[in-house]
């Protein structure tokens, strides 16, 4: 130990201690896996630069120079968003190392990071797209070996009128739909284990009831208890992340709306559409924050900063429009 600093601890050992310390935060498995990938990728580069195996790398080697070199090489083969996420992960890990007296200070302040790209909503394009999507899915437009329009419609509706993320949909239980008929709500466990309750209208209640009835017809031996997964695949098992994403891509394609989905949005475009329409119809930022399950109001404001209606109003205020004639010349 030097001046109260513990020396010689292996980096991998320190990282396991970091994850142990995070357990009370109840990170989702997806978040934990992403953190591990970020740490592993830089570990490998640091070890290569030091001429050792990752298992032999010690915390003392985590200097500003070593990290700058590793992140520079990492940036050569990764997108800006990946570099930014890895920088954030390592900043948290090294802050932990400082708090545990493994390092005298956090060297990440000396490592350049990409600027945070501004968040912008990615709703479905086209004013009538949500309605067309719902109608097509309800009518069984998705052609599949074993079509299940009731399930497909519930997935689309959970995005468009409840605003759920993919992980939140997969975490739903049968008992997540609570309340009396006409006053039901969807109880959601979101990021960081934050819970919220989203009211649903009678039309959505019917979608849920029709889906559960279809489950009983398809799987007569399956017991739909309150703690059973709500969304199932065609074998009666809880639907996976890949299955849910594939389902949505097929719904867009068979509805003829795949060209109205922003790049990289897919299922999340439904949630963005939910938020954007709420903003356009006059919901406050705090109301939207509660319904989306955001941890901070700033995140919500980024989602709804400029809605389509506000954009149109801003364009309409352009003084140049006043110079246009009342009607076009004859002919």
TrEMBL record:
Gene3D superfamilies: 1.10.150.130, Intergrase catalytic core. InterPro entries: CB, DNA_brk_join_enz, Integrase-like_cat_sf, Integrase_catalytic, Integrase_recombinase_N, Tyrosine_recombinase_XerCD. Keywords: DNA recombination, DNA-binding. Residues 9-98 form the Core-binding (CB) domain. One of its GO terms (biological process) is DNA integration. SUPFAM superfamilies: DNA breaking-rejoining enzymes. Residues 119-316 form the Tyr recombinase domain. It comes from the Bacteria. It holds the Pfam family Phage_integrase. This is Integrase. It comes from Gandjariella thermophila. PANTHER family: PHAGE INTEGRASE-RELATED, TYROSINE RECOMBINASE XERC. The keyword DNA-binding applies. GO terms for molecular function: DNA binding.
């Amino acid at each position: 130990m030097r001046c109260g600093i513990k020396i010689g601890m292996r980096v991998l050992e320190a990282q396991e201690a970091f994850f142990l310390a995070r357990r009370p935060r109840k990170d989702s498995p997806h978040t934990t896996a992403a953190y591990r990938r970020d740490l592993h990728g830089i570990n490998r580069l640091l070890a290569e630069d030091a001429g050792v195996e990752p298992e032999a790398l010690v915390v003392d080697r985590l200097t500003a120079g070593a990290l700058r070199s590793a992140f520079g090489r990492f940036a050569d083969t990764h997108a800006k968003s990946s570099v930014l996420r890895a920088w954030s992960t390592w900043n948290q890990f090294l802050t932990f190392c400082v708090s545990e007296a493994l390092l005298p200070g956090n060297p990440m302040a000396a490592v350049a990071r990409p600027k945070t790209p501004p968040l912008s909503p990615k709703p479905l394009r086209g004013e009538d797209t949500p309605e067309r999507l719902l109608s097509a899915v309800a009518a069984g437009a998705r052609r599949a070996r074993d079509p299940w329009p009731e399930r497909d419609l519930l997935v689309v509706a959970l995005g468009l009128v409840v605003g759920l993320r993919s992980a939140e949909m997969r975490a739903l239980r049968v008992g997540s739909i609570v309340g009396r008929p006409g006053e039901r709500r969807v109880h959601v466990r979101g990021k960081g284990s934050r819970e919220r309750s989203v009211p649903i209208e009678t039309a959505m209640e019917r979608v849920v009831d029709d889906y559960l009835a279809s489950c009983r017809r398809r799987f007569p031996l399956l017991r739909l208890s309150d703690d059973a997964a709500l969304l199932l695949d065609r074998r009666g098992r809880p639907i996976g992340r890949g299955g849910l994403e594939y389902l949505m891509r097929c719904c867009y394609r068979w509805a003829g709306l795949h060209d109205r989905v922003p790049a990289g949005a897919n299922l999340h475009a439904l949630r963005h559409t939910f938020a954007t329409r709420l903003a356009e119809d006059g919901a406050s930022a705090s109301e939207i924050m509660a319904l989306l399950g955001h941890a901070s109001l700033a995140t919500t404001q980024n989602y709804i900063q400029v809605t389509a209606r506000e954009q149109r109003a801003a364009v309409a205020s352009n003084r140049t429009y006043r110079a246009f004639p009342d009607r076009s010349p004859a002919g």
